[in-house]
Design brief:
The structure is a single chain. It is built from nine helices and 16 strands. By secondary structure, the chain is of the alpha/beta class. The strands form two sheets. Strands 7, 8, 9, 10, 11, 12, 13, 14, 15 and 16 form a ten-stranded mixed beta sheet that branches.
């Protein structure tokens, strides 16, 4: 699969590191507006600087490609999509899908009306530990899920477009965790309530701390607590998870999976089997590599990818519902 990658620095570099080794990927060209980044990355990865362009339109006119991968800020997402629609060129773009809900639905409509293949890179679904959690839950060994709690703590200072976001934690990080809630539970929330705030020591422009309570079908409840201005005991980007289930408990803490099953009730008290560590499943492709593989499969077979824009807009809807709730103090009811 011949691709044009938009953005070579920052997260673009992470994509380069993960996609270059893939046997089914060939770089047809790049789009990079920063000349210094373009030159340094071309030298670092031994690319011909002649295939690095200032705009996507120029790249599409100059090289033959099968798809575009866009790793540029969300403010440019709709224009990129329109260019790809005009060229009938499949597109995969970094999350978050958009900075506004209106624009997100506009993009979903544009993709649907045009029939263009358009994926959003929710790569956390394809991290081995998180992928393994999904397989355990789906196996049924723990029975039905009753509740989920998610916590996430980091200490971060931003520059670039994230520094201008009013809700960088919710828009840029919780979008992963909320997408994982949909993924793990296989359902959409029925109610959402959120709070977002700025601590006294927050040096960022946007609100960097948030809580959320959600109810999913079958009376499954989820709680979310996160901060990007934590002063210690930071957690992984995946977050720490606890699933209270019918037959036991599953936890993911610091990327270590524990499963503990309940034995029986003895004299009014539960008894438990010893907690068991589960090793993550070995995956042929992970994260961005898996998404690139899924993009190739979709192009070759016509199979709709899991993280297509028409699905991902539901994740972003959760983010903006929590933001709306935090601003109004009201519970958001979806039914």
């Amino acid at each position: 699969m011949r691709i044009i990658q938009m953005g070579m620095g920052g997260m673009g570099n992470a994509w380069l590191e993960r996609l270059i080794p893939l046997p089914f990927i060939e770089y047809a060209g790049f789009v990079e507006v920063d000349e210094q980044i373009a030159q340094s990355q071309a030298e670092a990865y031994d690319f011909d600087s002649a295939i690095v362009f200032k705009t996507l339109r120029h790249a599409l006119l100059a090289v033959e490609a099968d798809a575009v991968i866009s790793i540029i800020p969300p403010a440019f997402r709709t224009a990129t999509l329109q260019t790809c629609i005009d060229a009938n060129m499949p597109l995969m773009a970094e999350k978050p899908l958009s900075e506004t809900l209106e624009d997100a639905y506009t993009q979903a409509t544009m993709a649907t009306d045009s029939g263009l293949l358009y994926m959003i890179t929710q790569d956390y679904r394809y991290k081995p530990a998180l992928y393994t959690v999904k397989q355990i839950l789906d196996s049924g060994e723990l029975g039905a899920v009753s509740s989920v709690s998610v916590t996430h703590y980091r200490g971060l200072q931003f520059a670039g477009f994230r520094a201008e976001m009013p809700h960088p934690l919710l828009n840029d990080m919780a979008v992963h965790h909320f997408d994982l809630l949909r993924y793990f539970l296989g359902a959409e929330p029925e109610t959402l309530y959120g709070q977002a705030w700025s601590t006294t020591w927050n040096q960022n422009k946007g609100k960097m701390s948030a809580n959320a309570l959600m109810r999913f079908p079958n009376d499954v409840h989820a709680s979310y607590t996160a901060s990007w201005v934590s002063n210690g005991h930071v957690s992984s980007y995946e977050g720490d998870w606890r699933f209270e289930c019918e037959k036991g408990v599953l936890t993911l803490i610091d990327n270590v999976i524990h499963v503990q099953l309940r034995d029986d009730i003895d004299g009014g008290n539960y008894t438990y089997q010893p907690a068991e560590i589960r090793e993550p499943i070995t995956m042929l492709y992970e994260r961005q590599s898996y998404l690139a593989y899924e993009l190739q499969e979709a192009i070759q077979t016509g199979k709709a990818p899991v993280t297509r824009v028409q699905d991902n807009v539901k994740t972003l809807q959760m983010v903006f519902d929590v933001i709306e709730s935090s601003e109004t103090g009201q519970v958001i009811h979806k039914n």
